[in-house]
């Protein structure tokens, strides 16, 4: 599940026990990333606060699209699977999410969404390549400067989380093995899914 030795669930106490309890309540099981962050639960709490503040300020569909685009560009299976599954559950058909993950999304996205996806991928790919023209295009599509900053924040925050998981060898949870086969394959773009 990870290259690091995490705190075993039965040995957790204090902040770690609280982290584990909250994550089990939130998702229904103990995710692998929670085990990794058991070594620094305060950092995970700060991450949850940051990402909640970013997501709360955005339209959910836009947030999930920007997040999937960032995760795909970063080749983060764990994050692509997690956010791709949300998009599939709430907004798109499995084959449409697979298209978005592969960069073929413009056919299923409106023009503004396609720009957001392209921009989020650019932010995490090489932020120094972002130009004022990119910003003008987003403004012309109806995004305010605050909207644009929110996309940047969503993408940059995803970069942090994805890189922590991949640098520690933290695998996507085994539950993602139950996804639609084509969607699972499209979203497993880096490290594999953990065995059951």
What report would you give on this structure?
The structure is a single chain. Helices cover 65% and strands 0% of the residues. It has helices spanning 14-27, 32-37, 41-56, 60-74, 77-90, 94-101, 111-126, 132-140, 145-167, 181-187. The protein is mainly α and 196 residues long. The chain has ten helices and no strands. It has two domains: 8-56; 59-196, AhpD-like (Up-down Bundle), CATH 1.20.1290.10. The mean pLDDT is 96.
Summarize the structure.
By secondary structure, the protein is an all-alpha fold.
Total helix count?
A: 10
Q: Identify the quaternary structure here.
A: single chain
Beta fraction:
under 5%
**Total DSSP E strands:** 0
CATH topology (fold) name of the largest domain: AhpD-like
Labels describing this entry:
AhpD-like, 196 residues, 10 helices, globular, mainly alpha
Q: Topology, please?
A:
Blueprint: H1 14-27, H2 32-37, H3 41-56, H4 60-74, H5 77-90, H6 94-101, H7 111-126, H8 132-140, H9 145-167, H10 181-187
